[in-house]
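Action item from last meeting closed. Structure (130 res):
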């Protein structure tokens, strides 16, 4: 699979072409063109940095659903289905609950294990507070 070229990489290529060219016959000067390219690259870098900060903040703080899931957990292991049945809401899905449980485990607030259901003989993940 080919690597997709980013805008920043395109601007780097353009900058190199402009810097290496001797005379560009355009309505703007070579310096103005380079200034434009540098501003665009700076803008891309600023957006990327802000996105990283926002993602890190969101990851650190969690969200409301994560808090609800954490409040449902006890010191006894519970399966995802059991936890899901205790949370109300139309848009609450098993996948969303699983994602929040995973983030709680990564944050060191919960632990998980495998429980075997005797009736169905299947293994399920179960979570509890640490």
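Sequence:
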């Amino acid at each position: 699979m080919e690597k997709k070229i980013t805008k920043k990489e395109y601007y780097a290529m353009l900058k190199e072409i402009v810097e290496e060219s001797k005379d560009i016959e355009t309505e703007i000067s070579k310096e103005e063109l380079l200034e434009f390219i540098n501003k665009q690259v700076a803008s891309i870098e600023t957006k990327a940095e802000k996105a990283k900060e926002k993602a890190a903040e969101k990851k650190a703080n969690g969200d409301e659903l994560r808090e609800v899931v954490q409040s449902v957990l006890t010191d006894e292991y519970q399966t995802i289905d059991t936890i899901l049945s205790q949370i109300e809401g139309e848009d609450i899905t098993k996948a969303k609950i699983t994602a929040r449980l995973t983030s709680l485990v990564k944050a060191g607030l919960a632990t998980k294990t495998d429980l075997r259901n005797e009736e169905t003989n299947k293994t399920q993940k179960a979570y509890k507070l640490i």
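Note appended to the action item: The chain is about 55% helix and 15% strand.
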